[in-house]
Write a structure and sequence with these properties.
Length: about 300
């Protein structure tokens, strides 16, 4: 393999995650420059032809949302024989779609909250939570409602009764897509960074909000991301589950696995991110810091793991 010297950082785009992607890309670009490579920032929104990327030895994908995580970009880059960071097309498609993720996890006996797929239209609201389709969840106090495909916790709602279901319908920004009702696991939330098939220290996410929603993720100053305090058995369980999910979904290079732990200490995979955030406050570099790695060293490990 030829030496990597010139790296393009693909970022921005037009998704709801554009602003986070811009921050991720800028951080990665600065790190790559400080690591001694030649680096250029490329806003996907302003690109006319992917063939422009053939000028680079390697593309670091810091493009969040469907454009960077849906799989089409990776297929197109493969067709052009362009090297890039992270997972291949099929893994990206499977992880971007939460229904496909859950189906693959279930086939591989990897625990994930039970779910029910719906088109979130007026019929769902009119039928209410007494509809027989919700029998698989009973008894329940709450359910989560989330899009099959989206990031940044957009259009995720905690549903407890028909009134909250109606309110979610009115607040929803886009009904024209598949949604999932998901079992509510009452417990703790964790995220595990994997780089080169190695688990970094798990992070526990603590929020004063009802759940880790958009406000808790990007706006609140009270959300805490701390190194998880787990017993040796719990640490082994969460790492094993995360690696199993990473491999079952055929991920490559790096990813971040998000999990819940119930009151009986059982872990459940809720989703896998193939292009995690890389802002200075994101969970991936924070997890690396618990190993004594600085931001630049984490970026270097991602590049090396992707080659």
């Amino acid at each position: 393999m030829e030496e990597i010297r010139k790296i393009g950082v693909l970022y921005g785009g037009s998704s709801s995650e554009r602003e986070i992607s811009l921050l991720s890309g800028e951080g990665v670009h600065n790190a790559i420059c400080e690591l001694g490579y030649e680096s250029h920032l490329i806003d996907f929104k302003e690109m006319n032809d992917l063939k422009e990327l053939k000028d680079y030895d390697f593309i670091f994908i810091a493009l969040h949302g469907f454009e960077g995580e849906g799989g089409k970009l990776q297929k197109d880059l493969d067709d052009l024989n362009i090297l890039y960071s992270g997972s291949k097309s099929e893994a990206c498609r499977n992880t971007w779609n939460k229904k496909l993720t859950k189906e693959i996890l279930k086939i591989n006996n990897i625990s994930t909250p039970i779910w029910h797929e719906v088109l979130f239209d007026r019929n769902v609201v009119q039928n209410g939570l007494q509809d027989s389709s919700f029998d698989k969840f009973r008894p329940f106090e709450h359910l989560f409602l989330k899009p099959e495909e989206d990031g940044s916790s957009v259009d995720i709602f905690k549903i407890s009764n028909d009134k909250s279901l109606e309110e979610a319908y009115l607040k929803c920004t886009n009904h024209e897509r598949g949604f999932l009702f998901e079992e509510c696991i009452d417990g703790k939330e964790f995220t595990v960074t994997i780089i080169g098939k190695k688990c970094f220290p798990p992070i526990e996410i603590i929020t004063k909000n009802e759940f880790y929603d958009y406000e808790a993720k990007y706006i609140s100053n009270e959300t805490r991301h701390i190194e998880a305090e787990l017993s040796s058995n719990e640490l082994s369980d969460i790492q094993c589950l995360s690696l199993n999910a990473f491999e079952a979904l055929d991920c490559n290079g790096w990813a971040r696995v998000d999990l819940l732990q119930d009151k009986n200490s059982k872990f459940y995979v809720i989703e896998v991110n193939t292009v995690p955030g890389m802002t200075s406050h994101s969970n991936v570099p924070k997890s690396g810091s618990f190993l004594g790695l600085n931001y630049n060293e984490v970026v270097k490990k991602i590049i090396d793991a992707s080659l």
